[in-house]
Structure formats: C-alpha cells, structure tokens
Amino acid sequence: MEEKIYLGDWLYNAGIVGLLKIFDFNDSSNDIFRGDNYISFDSEALKDFHEKYFSFVYQKANTIKDKTQKLESIILSKDATEKDIKDYIKKITTSKTMKNDTSIARVLTEAKGTSDWRATADRLLKSLPGHWERNKDLYSKYYLQGFYEGKSIFNATVTTNIKELFERDFVKPLFDKDKPKKKAHYCKVCNEKKRTAKKDTFFDEGAFRLSGASVNEFKNFYWNLVPNTHLCSLCELIYLCSFAGFSNLR
Questions:
Q1: How far lies 56's CA from each of 70, 77, 103, 189, 249, in Å?
Q2: Which of 16, 68, 98, 110 yields a CA-CA distance of 20 to 30 A from 170?
Q3: Cα–Cα nearest to 138, from 237, 63, 52, 26
Q4: How many CB atoms lie within 10 A of CB 8?
C-alpha cells in the first residue's frame, strides 16, 4: 500500500528528513519518492525498519569507538605517564554497562595493584570491540533517551531485547489490519481517514522529550486537561526519526 506523508510542523519535518537519512544510510533511497511537499513509499519498505533504524543509530551512539581512539592516542603519546593512562581507564570504565560486562570487569580486576597500566590498556583495547557488539542496542537506547522518554524501549527499566521491542511497539503496528472501531480517533497530525490513531498514543514526551507534554503528569498541556493529540502509528514513527533530522552544531 502506498503511503504519502506531507510536510507539517518543524518537528514533523525533522522526522521526515530523519526518515530519508535513515533510508539513505541503508542504501534504500530508491524506496522513497521525494515530491515538492511530500514523500511517498510502499508500506512494505518499512517491514524491516527496525534494522535500518538501529544501523543508523549505532554510528551515532558508538561512544566506545571514540574512547578506543582516545586511549590509543594516550598510549602512543611519549608524554603520557602511567598515571595518565590509569586515570583515563578509570574515567571510561565507571558506567554500570562497563562494570556489568564480565570481559571488562576481568581486565579491571587484574589491574588492581598493577603499576603497568600500558599492559592493562592493551588488554582493555582488545575487550572494547566485543563490549560494543554485546551492548550496542543498550548504548543506542541511552543515546535515543536524549530525545524520547517514557514508553517502550525508552523506559528506564528496559535493558534487554531493545531492538525486538522497537519492532514490536513501533514497526509491527504499522501493519495492523484490524478494522477501525466506530468511535476510533483519527490522527491529529496527518488527519488521514485511513489511519486511525494508535491506542493510547499521543504527542507527548514519547514523541519528543523536550515537548514537555505528558498525558499523566502535565495534563495542563492539553485543552480542558483532556489529551487529544492522538497519533497514528506512522506519524509516531516519523517523530521517532526526528533525531536523525537535526544538525550537529559541534
């Protein structure tokens, strides 16, 4: 089925740009037609969108790569002391994710009482690529939490099966063929009659963290304290791509 998405507010437009960038990154740009004020594509192009989405997020969220390069540069520096190496290793291994990794924990345990921090750094460098592969979905979640909050994978308690949860909560609902109920709400954003709003889904912090909107905690965001910013599954996904549409000014 063909889906057509028109330009909207600035955040929605950022989501459209983000969607395009995610498709481009995955060499799938031909799957989307770009019009003057809209994009269109066959809904089948979203079947594996969770894979495309996370492959894009990985290159944004890979802080381990930066830490690896920095540690390598310190080791190679003639001016670096054992203390410099020790301090940097301690700095980059303080996170819970690092400490919970048995491979990293083993390196740190073996380093206790050592004076040869260059050798420790060598062992750590060998462990970091594996640490990233085992935890890249979790690091991706931490990165995305800078933009989205609360629901599904963005819930603070979620630490496993992250990509699978994203697929279940944000991709599979796009292909829900259930007939719309008589009293179903229509999406407040696209207002497409063929797209009924997803159950209990509104424009709130889950769609963009800095919106400040919360169905439960800040109902004064809504007229008469009644949440009415219903979203369909597709528009929800568009907002979840907005992070990719922003420019990095640093």
A1: 23, 33, 26, 25, 19
A2: 98
A3: 63
A4: 14
CA–CA gap between residue 53 and residue 163 (Å, rounded): 9
Quick one: CA dihedral 220, 211, 161, 69, positive or negative? negative
What residues have CB less than 8 Å from 87, skipping those under 6 apart? none
**pLDDT tens per residue across span 74-122:** 999 989 999 999 999 999 999 989 989 999 999 999 988 888 999 999 9
The pLDDT tens digits for 41-60 are 999 999 999 999 999 999 99
Cα 239 to chain centroid distance, Å, stands at 12
Q: Collapsing DSSP states into helix, strand and coil, what is residue 219?
A: helix
Taking residue 167's Cβ as centre, other Cβ atoms within 10 Å add up to 18
Instruction: Give the Cα separation of 20 and 149 in Å (integer).
Output: 23
CA 59 to chain centroid = 11
Cα 17 to Cα 244: distance, rounded to the nearest angstrom: 7
Q: Which two tokens stand for residue 176?
A: 């829900």
Q: Around Cβ 1, how many Cβ atoms within 10 Å?
A: 7
